[in-house]
Every structure is written in structure tokens, then in C-alpha cells.
Design goal:
With about 300 residues, the protein is of the alpha+beta class. The protein is built from 7 helices and 13 strands. It has 2 domains: about 100 residues, Alpha-Beta Plaits (2-Layer Sandwich); about 160 residues, Nuclear Transport Factor 2, Chain: A (Roll), CATH 3.10.450. It comes from Aspergillus kawachii (White koji mold).
């Protein structure tokens, strides 16, 4: 498990994915470690083991939610013989289906602690997170952090002017969908509006008027408008990224972006604010759907 850089209390969420048929063995080892921790490590404030279910893969998982008095206590925990022996057994018996996922988290308010797991909403790294009424799943915490990271990377690409093909290749699933809302009457000047762009263009298939792939969306957009993002602050601050994580198909991130926009036809420019809604994330956190709300009226007026 990795080190963290927290000044005081240190919160850790670790997700372990055993191989099929090995969950009970891993749970046995973790339960044994838990007893040793509670007996021998005064620097551990809480150390709880949960079982979860990955809806993407169908695999059962084990989740450790840990709290330490400080980083030094966490580092000491990772160096103790009981911890090292457990990981040696993981390797010797080949118990894990994939590497252990470890996340460092920190509640915005101390009265909301991960160990209770009985509240309906919380904040992770200053990210507002909405969760279903049934309560907060530990896996939702990890999911929220993963999808937020992907969206932050997308926003950085936007600010840096990364080529759309690269963005599609690295940030999106293999069969994404993009939809930018706008009135039908505006499509004569803004043909990217009000239609569903789906999938990716084959490398052997040239662009055409019938092309409705996501690659074509960026082609049409680039033939209509140009963008000059403010590299200093093109998106809303991370503490205003709205993340809804339920570890399922409804996971979503909403972000506000601002850019100077110009018309290719007229050269006129205006400052515009967009709202991007990212969803349908796959198991790797890649974006499956992007919905966009923009100032289509300004684009329409300035494109004549």
C-alpha cells in the first residue's frame, strides 16, 4: 500500500479483488490482520473490512476502510511483520486477480467519517458527491475518485488544445456518444447541434456527410467554430465538480467550462460558458457519453 501526504489524520480505502474461489481465503487473512492491528497498533483509529460487488465484472471484492492518527502511523503499519506476512501469502498463494487498489481520501468535515458508512452524502477531496437514498457504498467512494480523475484529464486536454482524435482515443470508450443540445432551426448554421453522434470512425473510412461518429462531431464543430480556452482557469474549480457515484451506469460528473469562441465563417468572437455532463463510464473510468449545453443563440448570431 502506498504512502500518503496528509498532515494529520490519514484515511485509506483499499479495494482487493481475489481470484474466483479465493475470497474466503483473502477474507481470512484480512480478518487475522485486523485482530493484530487492533491489538498492536495504537496509531490506528479504525480498521474495518467490508465485502462489495463489482457490477462491471461480476466479481466479489473486499474493501478495507482505514484511519490512522497520522502519516507516520500509516507508514509504520505497512512495515510491520503481520502486514508483510499477509502480502507474502497473497503472492505465494496467488490469491489476487489484479493489483490492490489503494486510495487516500480525506473528508471535508471531520464529523463525516468513512468508518460510519451510514450517511447519504459526503465530500471527498472537496468533491460534492450524491449517492442513492439506500446509503453510501464504499465502492462509490472509489468510483467517484476515479471518474473525477478522468474528467480532470479531459478538462486539461480541453485547456491545452489537445487534438480531438487523441481525446477520443485516450478519454473515451470505444463506442462513445456525444450530444450537444440546441434548437433544430439553428442546425443550418450549427450542424453539430441536436443530433446523436455515436461510435468511432474506422481508420479506413473517410469522413462524409453521412458520418455520424464522434470523430465527425469534432470535424463538424471544428469547421464551424474555433476555441480559445483560458489556460489559467478554463473550467470550474475542482471543488465545484459535481460527482454522482453509485458504482453503476448512472455515475456522472458535471463540469462548467468557459472559453472564447469564434465563428470560422465570420471571425467574430464571444465568451461562452458550457456545461458538460459526462456519463456511462466503463470499468477503466473512460467516458461513454458526453452531453453538452452551450449558448447556441450566440453562436447562431455570430455565425452570420
Amino acid at each position: 500500500m502506498t504512502n500518503t501526504q496528509f498532515g494529520e489524520e490519514c484515511d485509506i480505502v483499499a479495494v482487493l479483488t481475489p481470484k474466483p474461489g479465493k475470497l474466503d481465503r483473502v477474507a481470512e487473512l484480512l480478518t487475522k490482520l485486523t485482530a493484530c492491528v487492533k491489538k498492536n497498533e495504537p496509531g490506528v483509529l479504525s480498521f474495518h473490512l467490508y465485502k462489495d460487488f463489482d457490477r462491471e465484472t461480476g466479481q466479489e471484492e473486499l474493501v478495507l476502510v482505514e484511519k490512522y492518527v497520522n502519516k507516520e502511523a500509516y507508514d509504520l503499519h505497512a512495515e510491520l511483520p503481520d502486514f508483510q506476512a499477509m502480502h507474502a501469502t497473497f503472492r505465494a498463494e496467488e490469491l489476487m486477480a489484479k493489483p490492490i487498489l489503494v486510495k487516500s481520501v480525506k473528508p471535508l468535515k471531520k464529523l463525516w467519517t468513512l468508518a460510519t458508512l451510514n450517511f447519504r452524502s459526503t465530500f471527498l477531496s472537496h468533491i460534492p458527491i450524491s449517492v442513492p437514498n439506500s446509503g453510501l457504498s464504499v465502492k462509490s467512494i472509489v468510483t467517484a475518485m476515479n471518474i473525477r480523475t478522468v474528467v480532470e484529464a479531459f478538462c486539461a486536454d480541453f485547456a491545452n488544445g489537445t487534438h480531438p482524435t487523441t481525446i477520443l482515443d485516450t478519454r473515451f470508450t470505444s463506442n462513445p456518444e456525444i450530444y450537444e443540445y440546441g434548437p433544430d432551426w439553428a442546425r443550418s448554421r450549427l450542424p453539430y447541434l441536436g443530433r446523436s453522434w455515436t461510435g468511432r470512425r474506422s481508420s479506413s473510412t473517410p469522413s462524409s456527410e453521412e458520418d455520424t461518429t464522434c470523430d465527425a462531431y469534432f470535424d463538424v464543430l471544428g469547421q464551424t467554430l474555433f476555441f480559445e480556452p483560458d489556460n489559467r482557469e478554463p473550467t470550474s474549480p475542482p471543488d465545484q465538480f459535481l460527482v454522482s457515484a453509485s458504482n453503476g451506469s448512472d455515475d456522472a460528473v458535471m463540469v462548467k467550462l468557459t472559453s472564447t469562441v469564434g465563428s470560422i465563417a465570420t471571425g467574430k468572437k464571444w465568451v461562452e460558458t458550457f456545461v458538460f455532463l459526462f456519463g456511462r463510464f466503463d470499468a477503466q473510468g473512460r467516458i461513454g457519453k458526453l452531453e453538452i449545453w452551450s449558448d447556441s443563440l450566440s453562436a447562431w448570431v455570430n455565425s452570420e
